[in-house]
Amino acid sequence: MENILGEGWQVTPAGGATGEAYLAQYGDEKLFLKRNSSPFLAVLSAEGIVPKLLWTKRLENGDVITAQKWLPGRELKSHEMKQPRVAQMLYKIHRSSELLRMLNRLGKKPLSPDVIYLDLMQKFENHHRTDVEVIRALSYLAANKNDLEHVQKVVCHCDVNHNNWMFSEEGNLYLIDWDGAVVADPALDIGMLLYWYLPKEEWGDWLTHYGLTNTEGLRQRMYWYVLAQTLLSIYWYDHKGLNGEVEFWKKDLENLNHYRLIDTD
């Protein structure tokens, strides 16, 4: 990586799930480098959703290195996720025709409930097949996947955890780490954010800032996608052998199943 930048640059790993992100520093100048980032990054930068993309270089081995401006700032805290500007940023992302056009060009197919359910069934064919909560959740997904309201599919981030929201010292809000982006029902992102960070009685206000009304149809869609995402987390951490995380998400799944029973009483 140092060969790309020239002498004097110090490059260190910047963490992340892929292990392909780096911090490069030369004196007071800092860059965020990433190997084989999606071409989607250029559009995200142009839309002001991620820090500015400075340059892209292709290596002889075919790898592509991107450099973004390193901005001083911090991750959002859990309680800050209820802020109106978070809702407004998510609205901007979901309504961006440029982001949707780019993902379509990259071959991303819209995720329907049928596609998500079939994928989960395949994943769980040999995982937790006898787990009561997993069986209950899969049964609910199957029984309700055809009853969800049909809405226009948009670009969804798929991991709106507060750790992926960055507030710069300049006062700008960014949503980073777009490796898992999909084209899907916006309820996929909205549901995860509301279930994780806001009490139910505050959903209506947050949704107003986003531009939606807290309807029964929206709540059904959010619940369906949150349940599916929780199952996916159980599978993913089980595949990685992270038993502590598996147990955490299984407990969350149990709470979601129980929540449904209470909510329908």
Automatic annotation (TrEMBL):
Top-level taxon of the source organism: Bacteria
GO molecular function: transferase activity
InterPro entries: Aminoglycoside_PTrfase, CcrZ_PhaseVar_Mediator, Kinase-like_dom_sf
Pfam families registered for this protein in UniProt: APH (PF01636)
Gene3D superfamilies: 3.90.1200.10
UniProt cross-references to SUPFAM superfamilies, sorted A to Z: Protein kinase-like (PK-like)
Domain spans labelled Aminoglycoside phosphotransferase: 14-220
The name this protein goes by in its record: Phosphotransferase
